[in-house]
Amino acid sequence: MKQGKLAAGQAGADDVAFWTRPERKPLPRPPKPYRAQTTAERDADELFGGFPTDVIADAMGVDLTTARRWRRGATPIPPIARRLAQVMLHGDLGAIHAGWKDWYLKRDGMLVGPDGWAFRAGEILSLPLLQQCNRGLEQTIERLRRVEIQADWVSGQYVEPRPAAQECACDDD
């Protein structure tokens, strides 16, 4: 074997670089032809919005294929599932009962009223206690007023409260 030549099966670095082809990039896919959405697809888009199909399936308690069928409009969404989706995905409590119209549950568990006030579950559970405390304070204030009136009566400083002035609704022609 001569020094300038390579043995069979051996290639030099220049030979490999010369024979390798440049990497080919795949051609972009042509755009899909426009197809108008069906009513069922529009309804599903409106109801499910941008939620992923796995989130929809988990929230609704259905199989992933069912959620996919609902999303693409292949299967109609049952009315009870629509209501459940309104509550589970959007937090709209008006879907349960008309009395809860404009009330929402946020993802962090906060209950938001129509006026924008937000409450945690613990705050709502404490409302009966707060009402009971409020009634007790009102009763205490009323007792203190009676004691004050009695003290003024005993000391001779009691003044009979004047009735509020009544306006006459008659015509003065």
UniProtKB/TrEMBL annotation:
Name of the protein this chain belongs to: Uncharacterized protein
Ranges for region Disordered: 1-41
Pfam families to which the protein is assigned, alphabetical: DUF3653
Annotated source species: Steroidobacter gossypii
InterPro entries: Phage_phi-Lf_Orf112 (IPR021077)
Compositionally skewed regions (Low complexity) per UniProt: 1-13
